[in-house]
């Protein structure tokens, strides 16, 4: 494409203005590259570290196209070259907040994003094909209220204060639920004890208790959370999920507890002991 410059006019300028308007810039889409368009371009370039002048070259145009994608507008899957854009970044943010993605939110649909997507699809009882299509979009949309306000850079905090805040947010799940946690074997029971000890360390008024087995009757408003190494557990009226990453544990658990219906408060977590 030719570089679009100040005082140019025509269809290319009109397309530029329409894309800027989609991003929230208040300008008139008339095909004339004048002052309002110039200021919008300069602001967009500053936000994306693309220089200070008002020229729109191929690099700027590519960034503008990427920024205009919204999740659900196109199918996303692993391919070469990789899909990239604001929709991919939104997908990564959602999967991260829900406890499936633990990599950098970079807007590039790579292997880690596909793996996280497949896990989400499997746990939502969708075909785990790694393609973010209509059914997956609908499943993500049903959980939007839980992740739409999450900070996209949550996984990339680097100062100590922010790391402490992130840690606090991750373990918020043990502060706000009533649950009885038990292990089905010695190793899993140790994990259950660690969860119980963690909750007690955070608050003496914790509603998390650790039990030696499932042979108990928890409070009516409490979740019964079983932990074990068996990946094929099939308990009656029990939600089952696989767990293989300690970094994602709390967000993943919080997501599933929030998804459980009131009449179904049993959840089983199969774990990979290498993750601990």
Structure in words:
By secondary structure, this protein is α/β, with parallel strands linked by helices. Helix content is 41%, strand content 9%. The chain has ten helices and five strands, in the order H-H-H-H-H-H-H-H-E-H-E-E-E-H-E. The longest helix is centred in the last third of the chain and has 17 residues, at 186-202. Mean pLDDT is 80; it is low at 151-167.
Over the alpha carbons, how many angstroms does the gyration radius reach?
Answer: 23 Å
| Termini Cα gap | 52 Å
Globular, elongated, flat, extended or rod-shaped: what is the shape? elongated
Total number of helices? 10
Q: Characterize the biggest β-sheet.
A: 5 strands, parallel
What fraction of the residues are assigned to beta strands by DSSP?
Answer: 5-15%
Q: Give the neighbour order of strands across the main sheet.
A: 2-1-3-5-4
Arithmetic mean pLDDT: 80
Please tag this protein with its features.
276 residues, alpha/beta, 5 strands, 41% helix, elongated, 5-stranded parallel beta sheet
């Amino acid at each position: 494409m030719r570089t679009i410059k100040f005082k140019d006019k025509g269809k290319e300028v009109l397309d530029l203005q329409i894309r800027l308007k989609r991003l929230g810039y208040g300008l008139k889409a008339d095909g004339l590259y004048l002052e309002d368009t110039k200021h919008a371009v300069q602001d967009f370039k500053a936000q994306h570290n693309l220089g200070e002048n008002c020229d729109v070259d191929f690099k700027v145009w590519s960034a503008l196209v990427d920024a205009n994608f919204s999740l659900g507008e196109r199918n996303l899957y692993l391919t070469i070259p990789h899909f990239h854009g604001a929709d991919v970044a939104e997908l990564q943010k959602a999967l991260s907040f829900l406890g499936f993605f633990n990599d950098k939110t970079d807007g590039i649909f790579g292997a880690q994003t596909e793996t996280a997507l497949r896990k989400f699809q499997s746990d939502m009882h969708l075909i785990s094909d790694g393609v973010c299509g209509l059914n997956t979009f609908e499943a993500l949309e049903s959980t939007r209220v839980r992740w739409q306000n999450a900070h996209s850079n949550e996984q990339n905090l680097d100062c100590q204060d922010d790391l402490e805040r992130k840690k606090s947010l991750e373990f918020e799940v043990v502060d706000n639920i009533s649950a009885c946690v038990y292990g089905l074997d010695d190793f899993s029971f140790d994990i259950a004890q660690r969860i119980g000890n963690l909750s007690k360390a955070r608050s003496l008024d914790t509603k998390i208790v650790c039990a030696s087995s499932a042979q108990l009757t928890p409070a009516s408003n409490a979740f019964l959370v079983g932990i074990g190494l068996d990946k094929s557990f099939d308990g009656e009226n029990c939600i089952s999920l696989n767990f293989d990453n300690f970094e994602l544990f709390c967000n993943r658990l919080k997501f599933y507890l929030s998804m459980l219906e009131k009449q179904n408060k049993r959840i089983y977590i199969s774990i990979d002991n290498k993750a601990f």
